[in-house]
């Protein structure tokens, strides 16, 4: 499905004094998509969102909304409502008045704005609390008020800055589906900032991964999870094992890399631009794609002898932590059933192996 | 977004700035100018003559008063801090939440009763035939001469500053993280030792600031030294009033006032430095 | 019609109802008083207020010269006032006149001597300034906190006939003598402090004051009294003037006429705030008729040894500015003495 | 509270509580005595007491100067309260919202005046105001009192602003409210309790201030200046009667402020922790 | 391995006013074990720990340390150092002084305690920060200071109250292995309070699960995860599907339960005391043990027809949310590979099935 572009960032840079928070950012947000922006703390997610909302002006570059440059439009003249991490509900207004606020600022008549507000309160299933003080609501209810307050103007785009991070785990999951459904039903473009991988991956159509003000990768959750493009992304997602070495041989279909842990191969149509021999290359393999065996498997391409250093029990699966002779840590994630037959005492010697097609080359830095 | 200050911003920031410039900075600046004026026959004349500075600084009685005032204010700060601490400590740690709220409320009341009236009241307590001596008399003690002594001045200073010192100490004590105290106990630090090892260091800024406020208040006060201390010994505040009472010597009074301001600024600077000493910049987060 | 407001700058008490009510009623006037706490305070207030702020100004005699020099008061016409009813000594009162022009009119006066607690001292003991050095009074002697009356008394004690007109040697002697008194002193008090410390026995003797304090306390039953000691006493004198630029100078004149008349003078003598002697002979007569006890207590009777006789006998000297020293010199010494 | 049973010592706890009582006794002794003596017949109060009497209240009530002083005090207090609160609000908002060169100096100007001894302030004010023909009038007291009261208002309102979720103001802009509209619909409603609190506290401070007022008030003496006058001149239990009276007014204001400052104002950023 | 008992709680009750925070608690802590105490907020975890540390006195019952009752020993006379959630580092002392504190209180000479402190700082790899102010450290570094401060006295037992909850996800995982290693190397008994399942399960030898002041289950992570003993535990862990119904038939080896969603069977030696016919019974099955199929599977014992309501993407696995005809939510967790072949559009009708041996009976309440 090809969607129209709603927002575009064109060479946008944001500096605070001498510090560059966002570096030359170029990307587009499509009409109607659910875009998540992820990255570690301080990488510039909020700054990006705030520039879009008009709370910060870009130092360079242009931000366009529906094609028009909006760099210097004051916040209150844009329709880019935002949901804040703290929610920023007005404590001196009741629920209804909070939701009416934006309509009142737009000069809408009392009766009409009341009706519109109630419509949204109803939709968010909090109409019964309309006359309550926001302090009297639960976390989830407040979240809904904040959403209603921003959505009541029926904007084309909604910006959300870690809106769920203050909720407890159970509520977080429940609100995720509320958000996802809302976005689907209204067709409003959502730009959702978070540093939770699970939030981004379970809700977003596309995910932007940032690091130190730079976009590292943009793609669907599956693309990013399955094939992180840079070492940073692989590291950040934390589900890949990473190896670095010198390229021994390289062709369109197969690359062989000499790493401290042995010779590793990857291949199978993954290589638009194969590296050259002698280059340094970094390759990754998902911890769910690695296998363990007691004896050296025959016929496998990538085999690394390891010792068990620990096991971590995480719900349905367990992660086995292993160490190569060089002290490099390797993780293998398997279901309890799959691990049942293996001896996993600490110090036990085992072999990790995986298929060359499950390996990917990633860019360093 | 923090943009440059706009018309909107100036509407809020300028009025106070203008007011304080006109009516705070200018008067103080004028005080400086005034200290160089001369007086003849009850009339002041604009001038630029250091004579007032030379005269005042050349008078032994000025330095005597200066020493006395600094000593009195410093003693008052030490005394108030020591007297207030057990009280604010007990209010913080030994009272229920509601009792503590009441205690704070009650401690605010003195701020709204006239200090003059309270000092006048103390005269009735402290005089030779006053309430205190009458009560002591029931136990066969006294009478003691209390009024018109530095001790009585100190009572007045405590009246002036103790409520503030208690409140300031209280506010720094209630914000002590209780787990720090538990953590100290947990590491074999007994009750009393915890007060010195944990409570006081934690509240240090507040304790020093409280003492500083006591110093500021008592350093400039003229009510207690006059009405309880009997004007003896002479403090700087008494010297100021005396000076204005003698042939319109306002310029000389200005010299005293400016010396007092200088002293207070220096003391405040040192106290704040001491309060935050050892706390790295990042500590305030 | 609304009463006309007349502003008066004065010591406390002069615009209280016991004094002004009758005049206010007769003339549809309302006094707005500003009470000051000392002559310098008074000068300060005048100099820092726009001209014409004060219609009537009451000032101690020695300050009238300063008022005059600074041009703060209007000239008065002697013909407007019943000066003839005054005792002769008060008709040409120094300070009221300047180059033959009248600027103020003395309205009441009093004597400063030794004030003492009658339980602690006998009148005979108090009859000399030396009593202040009495060991049983250590820490119990108070000063009214103003150099002029105190140093004047010390000057009398050291044998100066005119206490304020003394040469350097005599001044040194005064200082030396005064400093020896310092250990005896229990405090330096303003008017209020003087009142209460004498009343409750906090101080047993006081220098620099007289009946204007003890008279009030006596009325309240306190055991205090003032005497003029053998070395002689000082005289304070309060004078009325009309403020420069007053828009109500006529009314102000009327007030001064009233308060210097026999009737007004009798009132003034009995002022609730503090009693005083009056310079108007006819006033004495009215007082003797109205309140013989008070006339007797204050010595405003026809008996020998009355107040005017004391003046005539040379036992009383005017309080005035030091003549051979600067005012500053005296004041600086006073500060030094206090700080000693 | 929690380690009660194990880590506490009853004797220590009770002696500390007794110490609290002693401290409060010291603080309240003069206040209570002044109240008692205001109802006592003796002009120069001493022990034993005279008899019960309302004479000092009557004396006060029948003294037109006291009424005039009270009127001055009230008018001045209200005007001072309003101006100080306006100025303090502006300064608090400036500090909250803006960063600019010289902000430290600005804040020093906004907060320093109460630390200058009143006697010096009074002296400087009188000397200065008389130069520009502004002394000796009610306005002189107002000017001087605003100088020392505005910092209190600023502190109170600034404290409230610091409890405000910093996202609240941008959230309002983001919802289409201009800066002015946000001021009217968000900042002012949020700080309202503090605004009234500041109003009452600054009025109370002005009601009670005598030293500066004594210097600059000229003919327009306020009630506290009258008290000083009584103390300097006519020692009289009227001091106690006026003191008791002023105390009642001030406390009323303070309690009002207290109620407003702690009233139902919804959650603050702090409670959301 | 049979270990000696270090701590025992014997009938311990703790009341706050009228409220009972801990109800008749009986359990033992073995020397050298890593015991985690888990439970939802307010269930009494912290209270239990604080009683052990001497910060609260039990209202009833006895706590013994190495056999000696310690109910009324003041905190400062016990050696039960604690690591606080807030860390409770002394902000007015530098790192070294913090670590020396406990030694100083024991009257150790300056030189010796300095040496001991540095030894621990070194061990915790923060020696280089010894002279820093604690405010200048990162979260993880502060954590290490807190550990060093408590461990410097080389106690027999260390109490930890949610020590990692303030850290971000990545740091949390890293500190978990630091803690686990430390416990293994020193052999010190760790009592670790948390409400994070993953923390408890990945570090602890045994886990105590509490609810409203009552211990619901004690066991190894595997025991508890595989066979929750009560409905609360099953619910709390959140990885089981739960069904309630009437017992139709019951034998030593097999139980049949009539639930609103159909007739469900369980069995296979799991039933020490089988329920009686007609009783109400609650049974659970792990979401990883349930399977999905498009057509009704033949020969399976437990088959429930469902409709898809959503899918959640969580790293290596995905959770499919389904709904029975009665509106009961069922979750199935599978790897992406396993789900690849299934149509998972919302509303799609599917069948959930599982083996009777994967079901367990749990106690209600
Ligand atoms: N107003 C500002 N002035 C100076 N620096 C700023 C400002 N706002 C943000 N920064 C800096 O810019 C960088 C990016 O900040 P931003 O808030 O966008 O991060 P973030 O990705 O949202 O982080 P987090 O996940 O912690 O919210 C940070 O280093 C931050 O300190
Ligand atoms: N000092 C106290 N006074 C009154 N009630 C208390 C006190 N301490 C704890 N409680 C109550 O006892 C119960 C258990 O508290 P506790 O702190 O042990 O819970 P918790 O399991 O640690 O919870 P959390 O996970 O939120 O830390 C709670 O309901 C709490 O409100
Ligand atoms: N409160 C007014 C007292 C005035 C007395 N005047 C006499 C001056 C004595 N030195
Ligand atoms: Mg952010
Ligand atoms: Mg807890």
From TrEMBL, chains A, E:
A GO term from the CC aspect: ATP-binding cassette (ABC) transporter complex
Superkingdom of the source species: Bacteria
Family annotation (SMART domains): AAA
Keywords: ATP-binding, Cell inner membrane, Cell membrane, Membrane, Nucleotide-binding, Translocase, Transport
One Gene Ontology term from the biological process aspect of the record: putrescine transport
ABC transporter domain mapped to chain residues: 7-237
A molecular-function term among this protein's GO annotations: transmembrane transporter activity
Matching SUPFAM superfamilies: MOP-like (SSF50331), P-loop containing nucleoside triphosphate hydrolases (SSF52540)
Transmembrane intervals: none
Cross-referenced InterPro entries: AAA+_ATPase, ABC_SmlMolc_Importer, ABC_transporter-like_ATP-bd, ABC_transporter-like_CS, Mo/tungstate-bd_C_term_dom, P-loop_NTPase, Transp-assoc_OB_typ2
Protein name as annotated: ABC transporter ATP-binding protein
Automatic annotation (TrEMBL), chain B:
Membrane-protein topology: Multi-pass membrane protein
Location relative to the cell: Cell membrane
Protein name in the entry: ABC transporter permease
ABC transmembrane type-1 domain location: 66-271
The keyword Metal-binding is assigned to this record: no
A Pfam family of this chain: BPD_transp_1
Assigned protein family: Belongs to the binding-protein-dependent transport system permease family. CysTW subfamily.
Transmembrane domains' residue ranges: 12-37, 65-90, 102-120, 154-176, 196-219, 253-276
Biological processes per GO annotation: transmembrane transport
Record key words, sorted: Cell membrane, Membrane, Transmembrane, Transmembrane helix, Transport
Keyword Transport: yes
GO cellular component: plasma membrane
TrEMBL record, chain D:
Gene3D superfamilies membership: MetI-like (1.10.3720.10)
InterPro entries: Bact_Polyamine_Transport, MetI-like, MetI-like_sf
Superkingdom assignment: Bacteria
Annotated keywords: Cell membrane, Membrane, Transmembrane, Transmembrane helix, Transport
Residues making up the signal peptide according to the UniProt record: none
UniProt keyword annotation of Phosphoprotein present: no
GO aspect biological process, one term: transmembrane transport
Transmembrane segments: 21-39, 74-93, 105-128, 134-157, 194-219, 239-261
Membrane topology reported for the UniProt record: Multi-pass membrane protein
Pfam families assigned to the protein according to its UniProt record, in alphabetical order: BPD_transp_1 (PF00528)
Location(s), subcellular: Cell membrane
Keyword Transcription: no
A GO CC term assigned to this protein in UniProt: plasma membrane
All copies of domain ABC transmembrane type-1, residue ranges: 70-257
Similarity field: Belongs to the binding-protein-dependent transport system permease family. CysTW subfamily.
Name of protein: ABC transporter permease
Organism: Paragemmobacter straminiformis
């Amino acid at each position: 499905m090809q969607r129209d572009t709603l927002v575009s960032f064109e060479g946008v840079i944001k500096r605070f004094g001498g510090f560059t928070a966002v570096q030359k950012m170029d990307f587009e947000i499509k009409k109607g998509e659910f875009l998540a922006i992820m990255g570690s703390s301080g990488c510039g997610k909020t700054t990006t969102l705030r520039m879009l909302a008009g709370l910060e002006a870009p130092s360079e570059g242009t931000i366009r909304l529906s094609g028009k440059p909006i760099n210097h439009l004051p916040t209150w003249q844009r329709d880019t409502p935002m949901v804040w991490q703290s929610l920023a509900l007005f404590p001196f207004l009741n629920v209804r008045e909070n939701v009416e606020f934006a309509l009142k600022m737009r000069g809408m008549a009392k009766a009409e704005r009341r009706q519109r507000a109630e419509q949204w309160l109803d939709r968010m299933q909090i109409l019964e609390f309309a006359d309550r003080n926001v302090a009297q609501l639960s976390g989830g209810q407040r979240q809904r008020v904040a959403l209603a307050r921003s959505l009541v103007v029926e904007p084309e785009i909604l910006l959300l800055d870690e809106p769920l991070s203050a909720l407890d785990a159970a509520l977080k999951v429940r609100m995720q589906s509320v958000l996802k459904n809302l976005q689907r039903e209204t067709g409003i473009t959502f730009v959702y900032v978070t540093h939770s991988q699970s939030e981004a991956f379970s809700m977003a159509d596309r995910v932007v991964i940032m690091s130190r003000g730079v976009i590292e990768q943009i793609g669907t959750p599956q693309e990013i999870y399955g094939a992180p493009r840079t070492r940073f992304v692989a590291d950040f997602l934390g589900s890949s094992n990473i190896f670095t070495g010198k390229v021994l041989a390289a062709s369109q279909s197969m690359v062989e890399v000499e790493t401290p842990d042995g010779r590793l191969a990857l291949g199978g149509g993954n290589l638009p631009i194969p590296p050259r021999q002698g280059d340094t290359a970094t390759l990754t393999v998902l911890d769910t794609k690695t296998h363990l065996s007691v004896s050296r498997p025959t016929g496998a391409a990538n085999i690394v002898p390891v010792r068990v250093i620990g096991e971590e029990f995480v719900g349905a699966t367990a992660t086995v932590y292993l160490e190569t002779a060089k002290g490099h840590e390797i993780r293998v994630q398997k279901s309890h059933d799959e691990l049942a037959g293996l001896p996993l005492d600490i110090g036990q010697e085992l072999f990790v192996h995986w298929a060359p097609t499950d390996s990917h080359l990633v860019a360093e830095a | 977004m923090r943009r440059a200050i706009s018309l909107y911003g100036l509407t809020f920031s300028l009025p106070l700035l203008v007011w304080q410039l006109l009516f705070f900075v200018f008067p103080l600046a004028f005080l400086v100018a005034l200290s160089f004026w001369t007086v003849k026959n009850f009339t002041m004349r604009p001038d630029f003559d250091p004579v007032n500075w030379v005269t005042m600084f050349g008078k032994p009685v000025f330095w005597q008063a200066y020493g006395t005032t600094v000593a009195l204010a410093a003693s008052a700060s030490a005394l108030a801090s020591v007297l207030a601490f057990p009280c604010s400590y007990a209010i913080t740690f030994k009272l229920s939440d509601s009792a503590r709220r009441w205690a704070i409320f009650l401690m605010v009341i003195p701020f709204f009763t006239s200090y003059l009236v309270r000092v006048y009241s103390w005269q009735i307590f402290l005089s030779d035939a006053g309430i205190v001596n009458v009560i002591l008399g029931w136990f066969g003690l006294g009478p003691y001469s209390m009024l018109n002594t530095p001790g009585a001045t100190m009572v007045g200073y405590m009246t002036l500053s103790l409520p503030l010192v208690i409140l300031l100490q209280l506010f720094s004590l209630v914000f002590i993280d209780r787990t720090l105290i538990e953590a100290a106990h947990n590491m074999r630090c007994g009750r009393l030792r915890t007060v010195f090892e944990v409570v006081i260091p934690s509240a240090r800024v507040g304790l020093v600031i409280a003492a500083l406020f006591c110093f500021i208040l008592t350093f400039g006060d003229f009510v207690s030294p006059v009405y309880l201390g009997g004007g003896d010994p002479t403090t700087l505040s008494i010297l100021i009033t005396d000076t204005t009472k003698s042939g319109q010597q306002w310029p000389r009074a200005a010299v005293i006032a400016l010396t007092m301001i200088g002293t207070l600024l220096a003391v405040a600077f040192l106290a704040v430095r001491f309060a935050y000493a050892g706390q790295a910049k990042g500590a305030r987060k | 019609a609304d009463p006309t407001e007349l502003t008066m700058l004065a010591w406390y008490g002069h615009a209280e109802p016991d004094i002004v009510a009758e005049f206010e009623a007769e003339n549809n006037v309302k006094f707005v008083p500003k009470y000051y706490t000392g002559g310098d305070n008074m000068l300060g207030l005048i100099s820092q207020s726009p001209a014409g702020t004060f219609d009537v100004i009451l000032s101690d005699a020695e300050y009238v010269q300063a008022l005059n020099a600074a041009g703060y008061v209007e000239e008065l016409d002697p013909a407007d006032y019943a000066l003839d009813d005054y005792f002769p000594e008060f008709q040409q009162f120094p300070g009221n006149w300047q180059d033959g022009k009248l600027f103020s009119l003395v309205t009441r006066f009093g004597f400063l001597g030794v004030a003492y607690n009658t339980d602690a001292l006998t009148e005979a003991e108090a009859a000399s300034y030396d009593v202040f050095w009495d060991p049983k009074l250590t820490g119990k002697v108070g000063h009214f906190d103003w150099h002029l009356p105190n140093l004047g008394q010390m000057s009398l004690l050291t044998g100066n006939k005119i206490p304020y007109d003394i040469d350097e040697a005599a001044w040194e002697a005064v200082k030396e003598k005064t400093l020896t008194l310092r250990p005896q002193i229990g405090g330096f008090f303003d008017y209020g402090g003087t009142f209460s410390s004498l009343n409750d026995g906090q101080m047993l003797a006081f220098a620099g004051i007289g009946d204007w304090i003890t008279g009030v306390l006596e009325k309240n039953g306190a055991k205090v009294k003032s005497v003029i000691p053998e070395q002689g006493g000082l005289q304070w004198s309060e004078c009325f003037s009309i403020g420069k630029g007053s828009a109500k100078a006529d009314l102000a004149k009327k007030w001064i006429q009233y308060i210097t008349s026999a009737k007004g003078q009798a009132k003034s003598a009995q002022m609730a705030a503090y009693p005083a002697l009056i310079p108007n002979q006819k006033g004495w007569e009215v007082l003797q008729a109205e309140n013989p006890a008070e006339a007797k207590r204050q010595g405003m009777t026809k008996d020998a040894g009355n107040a005017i006789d004391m003046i005539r006998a040379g036992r009383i000297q005017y309080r005035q500015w030091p003549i051979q020293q600067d005012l500053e010199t005296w004041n600086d010494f006073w500060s030094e003495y206090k700080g000693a | 509270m929690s380690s009660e049973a194990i880590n506490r010592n009853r004797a220590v706890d009770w002696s500390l509580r007794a110490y609290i009582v002693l401290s409060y006794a010291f603080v309240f002794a003069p206040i209570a005595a002044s109240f008692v003596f205001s109802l006592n017949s003796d002009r120069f109060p001493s022990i034993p007491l005279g008899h019960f009497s309302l004479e000092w209240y009557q004396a006060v009530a029948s003294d037109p100067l006291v009424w005039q002083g009270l009127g001055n005090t009230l008018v001045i207090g209200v005007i001072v309260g309003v101006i100080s609160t306006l100025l303090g609000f502006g300064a608090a908002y400036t500090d909250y919202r803006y960063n600019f060169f010289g902000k430290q100096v600005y804040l020093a100007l906004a907060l320093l005046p109460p630390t200058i001894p009143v006697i010096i302030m009074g002296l400087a004010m009188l000397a200065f105001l008389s130069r520009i023909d502004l002394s000796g009038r009610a306005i002189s007291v107002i000017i001087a009192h605003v100088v020392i009261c505005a910092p209190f208002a600023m502190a109170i309102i600034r404290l409230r602003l610091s409890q405000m979720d910093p996202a609240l103001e941008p959230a309002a802009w983001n919802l289409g409210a201009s800066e002015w509209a946000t001021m009217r619909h968000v900042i002012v409603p949020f700080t309202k309790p503090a605004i009234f609190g500041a109003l009452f506290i600054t009025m109370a401070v002005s009601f009670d201030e005598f030293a500066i007022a004594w210097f600059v008030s000229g003919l327009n003496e306020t009630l506290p200046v009258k008290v000083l006058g009584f103390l300097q001149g006519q020692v009289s239990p009227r001091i106690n009667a006026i003191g008791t009276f002023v105390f009642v007014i001030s406390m009323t204001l303070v309690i009002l402020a207290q109620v407003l400052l702690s009233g139902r104002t919804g959650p603050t950023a702090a409670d959301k922790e």
